[in-house]
Design brief:
Helix content is 5%, strand content 47%. By secondary structure, it is mainly beta. The longest helix is centred in the C-terminal third of the chain and has 6 residues.
C-alpha cells in the first residue's frame, strides 16, 4: 500500500516552533519531489514549500520564507518541515505530497510549488494560539 503519513502537528503558542515529518511507505521517495501544503478553515489549499528529490532545489511561499525550512533524508524515506516563529495565521491542516519528477521536469515542478501531485498524505493539524 502506497502512502504518506504526516506527524508532528499540535498546539503551539505564537513565536513557537514545530517540526513536521512525512514518511513514505510502499514506495521510495528517491524519484519524487515533495511538497508541503496547508488548508485553513474556509480557505483553499495552498502550497507552502517544495523540495526536489536530491534536495538541490527548494521553493517557499512568500508567507513562510525565512521562517520555515524544508529538508529530506532519502535514506529514511522522510521529509521534514521545520516551522519557526509561528503565527496564528499558520494555523491549518498541513499535508505532504509526492510528485514524480525527472531531470527534465524537476525545475518546473519546484518552481510551481509541486504542482501535479501523485500521492497525498492524510494531513496533520497545526494550531498556533495563545
Amino acid at each position: 500500500q502506497l502512502q504518506l503519513v504526516e506527524s508532528g502537528g499540535g498546539l503551539v503558542q505564537p513565536g513557537g516552533s514545530l517540526r513536521l515529518s512525512c514518511v513514505a511507505s510502499g514506495f521510495t521517495l528517491d524519484n519524487y519531489a515533495i511538497g508541503w501544503f496547508r488548508q485553513a478553515p474556509g480557505k483553499e489549499r495552498e502550497g507552502v514549500s517544495c523540495i526536489s528529490s536530491s534536495s538541490g532545489r527548494t521553493n517557499y511561499a512568500d508567507s513562510v520564507k525565512g521562517r520555515f525550512t524544508i529538508s529530506r533524508d532519502n535514506a529514511k524515506n522522510t521529509v521534514y518541515l521545520q516551522m519557526n516563529s509561528l503565527k496564528p495565521e499558520d494555523t491549518a491542516v498541513y499535508y505532504c505530497a509526492a510528485v514524480r519528477q525527472s531531470l527534465l521536469t524537476v525545475q518546473a515542478i519546484v518552481q510551481t510549488m509541486c504542482v501535479g501531485v501523485n500521492y497525498w498524505g492524510q494531513g496533520t493539524q497545526v494550531t498556533v494560539s495563545s
